[in-house]
From TrEMBL:
Protein name: Uncharacterized protein
Region (Disordered) location: 45-96
Biased composition (Pro residues): 58-78
Species, as recorded: Allosphingosinicella indica
Composition-biased stretches (Gly residues): 81-96
Amino acid sequence: MSPPDDDELELDDELLLDDEDELELDEEPPVDVLVEAVKMMLPELLPPKKPPLKKPPPKPPPKPPLPPITVTPPPPPVAGGMSGGGGGSGMGGGAA
């Protein structure tokens, strides 16, 4: 075959060896190293912080409880009320 193909194969073999070397590493980096790495990345990941407020805004005073709403039942109908209506029509008839 042509020599460039051989060169490509050699490069692939080197890459595979590098990957295997990484897989053989079972030790994890110490936590301190990870914490420092995260601290370095935090400014890029988080939006800029606003300066903390000196005092929280005062809460509004609690509103007094509303008095209970009582529903008053309508008064019972008066018996004379109906007859009064009839009397009104009688008055109209008399005026005519």
